[in-house]
Amino acid sequence: MIVHLVDGTYELFRHFYGLRRFHEDEDPPFGAVTGVLHTVLQMIEEGAAHIGVATDHVIESFRNRLWSGYKTGDGVDRALLAQFHPLEEALASMGVAVWPMTELEADDALASAASLASEDAAVQKICIWTPDKDLAQCVRGERIVQADRRRRKIRDAKGVRREFGVEPALIPDFLALVGDAADGYPGIRGIGPVTAAGLLNRHGIIEDFPPAVLGDRRDLALLFKKLATLRTDAPLFRDVDELRWRGPTDAFAAWAKQLGDARLLERCLKASQADERITR
């Protein structure tokens, strides 16, 4: 069994700005939603049977209380923000497990889902569909990997070491030192990726650094590490079988009509019929 975990927020951004290149005058009101649904359907058509999608139901999280500069919804295009909730509802009506996050972030949901799924011995592989470097901390050997659809790239543990110079478990420490502009924290001044990797490979986690390495910057580094560390305790499901796609609900026909894309329903029903034939 392979479990597929999709970063719905990333996919929504990707489709929104991809469409904008072709619609200079006006953004289609549900264009990005439709794009994400087709992406998920393509995954199902290609054999994904167990699939879950995480979204940021609100952009802010508990991390905003820890660091005032942490990312917010400020500056996010209103036309894009308006498609988050419709995406969640449309995915649910399509029969896909969806996790709209509020206090936690979509990345936390993906990390939690990967942790939960890894406890099931029947799960052979877990694919986290996002290029976000935060999720590299969840990679474990070749069993839990990151998949970048746009670049057609799979990042396993060896890939994480090759790209960042550290083991996956050290990614929160690495990001704490070098910073993450996308999330809004700067890291420790004067420490770049090469220096950070060298320090972590020499001393281990930040908590084990000799006092002289960071000096009075240690507390700041530990704060950034807390921001970079993904939560794995979100109770998203009890059994991996809850992620099994069993076809659309009766409500999906209305959603396909509202989105103005009859092909969505056609593809969904065809995929569902194919799935029924396979599982008989």
The CATH superfamily of the largest domain turns out to be: 5'-nuclease
Order of helices and strands: EHHEHHHEHEEEHHHHHHH
Q: What level of helicity do the residues show?
A: 40-55%
Please, how many helices?
13
Based on CA atoms alone, the radius of gyration comes out at: 20 Å
Number of extended strands: 6
The overall average pLDDT, rounded, is 93
CATH architecture of the largest domain: 3-Layer(aba) Sandwich
Determine and state the CATH class of the largest domain.
Alpha Beta
CATH topology name of the largest domain, in short, is: Rossmann fold
As an assembly, this protein is: single chain
Distance between the termini: 17 Å
Q: Return residue spans where pLDDT drops below 50 for at least 5 consecutive residues.
A: none
Q: How do the strands of the widest beta sheet line up side by side?
A: 3-2-1-4-5-6
How much strand? 5-15%
Q: Structural class, judged by helices and strands?
A: alpha/beta
InterPro entries: 5-3_exonucl_a-hlix_arch_N, 5-3_exonuclease, 5-3_exonuclease_C_sf, DNA_polI_H3TH, FEN, HhH2, PIN-like_dom_sf
Function: 5'-3' exonuclease acting preferentially on double-stranded DNA.
Domain 5'-3' exonuclease: 1-246
Protein name: 5'-3' exonuclease
